[in-house]
């Protein structure tokens, strides 16, 4: 065999799988995810006419990487085109053509928030089957999502039209994001945008439900959208009112809300115990991005689903890394 032929065979055997380290975190994530069963659910998103497009499972994998690494569309174009680990995870070989940045906007539009909710719920179902979601204790709280707007210019528009200032009554007439509102948490924290409500199961810190509302919606009104039936719900002082108590009673949940200082029957020892109990899971809310990537309530719900999905995947992979024999060896692709 000639030397030239031997070199050709050597380069033919080089694949993305052969170059990716055996202990790379994407291998752990890949071993956990089973997105193939979702292909039939999303088959109607693509036309059967014309040339075949990018498979839906590849598109979902690229979205997961985009939110896992917090990449823009153009950054994601470079990542899937140049990064060997991303190529392997998204099922591309070294010389395969990869999509440009315009594909990701089209993919999000085609999928929509309802389809992403199905993916999120599918993964939560996998977590429940693995015993990583218990349902006994649930920690519910909300965090701010700050909208991308130019409020100085919008305030000037309000003044030009005779309004003294921007407020939740008139901001929809001037803001570029018509669904965003002003919100307040405590006495000093004000922002313009949305509020993310999360339900964190306290067995392994997995997010089981997520909802987005305008920032002016009280926490107690968002409770009904993320509360799971049964168990004990650990809540902060914002949920100590009668409205939240009715929602908890209707769902058959034990009320674990911390009472305000001036409330009758406040037990400081009980409240300190509840605070310590939920303290390890506070990071679920603090570590997530507080900047809105998109405009509009529906698109911000899409963002919240993807961020919660990525949180669960990373947490799942972290748990598996501590028990290396829990998953089979990755299968070469």
Describe what this molecule looks like in 3D.
The protein folds into 2 domains: 111 residues, no CATH class; 177 residues, Nucleotidyltransferase, domain 5 (2-Layer Sandwich), CATH 3.30.420. Strands 1, 2, 3, 4, 5 and 6 form a 6-stranded mixed beta sheet that branches. By secondary structure, it is of the alpha/beta class. Helix 4 packs across helix 13 and helix 7 crosses helix 13. Strand 2 and strand 3 form a beta hairpin. It is built from 13 helices and 6 strands. It is globular, with a radius of gyration of 23 Å.
For the structure shown, list the relevant keywords:
2 domains; disordered C terminus; globular; Nucleotidyltransferase, domain 5; 14% strand; 333 residues; six-stranded mixed β-sheet; alpha/beta
Order of helices and strands: HHHHHHHEHEEEHEHEHHH
SS content category? alpha/beta
Q: Show unreliable segments.
A: 327-333
Which percent band covers the strand fraction? 5-15%
Counting DSSP H or I runs of 4 or more residues, the number of helices is 13
- Which geometry do the CA atoms define? globular
The strand count comes to: 6
The overall pLDDT, averaged over residues, is: 85
Overall number of domains: 2
The largest β sheet comes out as: 6 strands, mixed
Ends apart, CA distance between termini: 29 Å
What is the compact description of this entry?
By secondary structure, the protein is of the alpha/beta class. It has helices at residues 3-12, 16-19, 25-32, 56-68, 73-82, 84-89, 102-129, 151-160, 219-226, 242-250, 268-278, 283-286, 297-322, and strands at 137-146, 181-185, 189-201, 206-214, 232-235, 254-257.
């Amino acid at each position: 065999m000639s030397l030239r032929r031997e070199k050709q065979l050597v380069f033919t055997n080089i694949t993305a799988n052969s170059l990716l380290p055996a202990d790379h975190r994407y291998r752990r994530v890949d071993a956990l995810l089973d997105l193939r069963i979702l292909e039939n659910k999303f088959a109607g998103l693509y036309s059967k006419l014309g040339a075949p497009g990018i498979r839906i499972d590849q598109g979902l994998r690229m979205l997961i990487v985009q939110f896992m690494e917090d990449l823009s569309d153009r950054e994601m174009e470079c990542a899937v085109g140049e990064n060997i680990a991303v190529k392997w995870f998204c099922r591309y070989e070294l010389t395969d053509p990869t999509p440009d940045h315009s594909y990701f906007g089209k993919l999000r539009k085609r999928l929509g928030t309802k389809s992403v909710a199905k993916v999120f719920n599918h993964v939560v179902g996998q977590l429940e089957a693995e015993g990583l979601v218990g349902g006994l204790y649930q920690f519910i709280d909300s965090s701010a999502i700050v909208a991308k707007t130019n409020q100085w210019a919008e305030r000037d528009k309000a003044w030009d039209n005779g309004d003294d200032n921007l407020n939740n009554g008139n901001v929809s007439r001037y803001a570029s994001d018509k669904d965003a509102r002003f919100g307040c948490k405590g006495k000093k924290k004000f922002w313009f945008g949305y509020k993310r409500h999360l339900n964190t199961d306290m067995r392994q810190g997995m997010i089981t439900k997520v909802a987005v509302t305008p920032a002016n919606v009280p926490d107690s009104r968002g409770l009904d959208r993320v509360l799971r039936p049964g168990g004990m719900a650990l809540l902060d002082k914002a949920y100590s009112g009668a409205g939240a108590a009715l929602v908890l009673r209707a769902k058959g949940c034990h009320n674990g809300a911390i009472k305000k200082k001036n409330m009758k029957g406040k037990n400081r020892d009980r409240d300190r115990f509840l605070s310590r109990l939920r303290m390890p899971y506070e990071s679920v809310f603090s570590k997530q991005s507080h900047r809105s990537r998109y405009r509009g309530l529906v698109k911000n719900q899409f963002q919240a689903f993807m961020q919660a999905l990525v949180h669960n995947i990373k947490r799942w992979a972290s748990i598996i890394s501590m028990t290396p024999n829990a998953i089979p060896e990755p299968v070469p692709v």
